[in-house]
Write the structure tokens for this entry.
Amino acid sequence: MQSLIDGIGWWALLASLLGLIIGAATWAVGSHSNNYQHSSTGRRAVLVSGAAALLIGAAPTVLNFLYGVGQSVK
């Protein structure tokens, strides 16, 4: 079960990286061509992909913390 979850986490981080790269490219091309719509879409993709990667990376620590808090409450 642990290896399955680790694999899903790996693929999710890879998808976040791909979204970050595509979003940065869209942002750069939109900014260079003075296209506000593409620039805004690329910026949003970069921010969402970065936030997703942060949440995926922090998930084990947050879950372990919450599990520890739950065990201490009786």
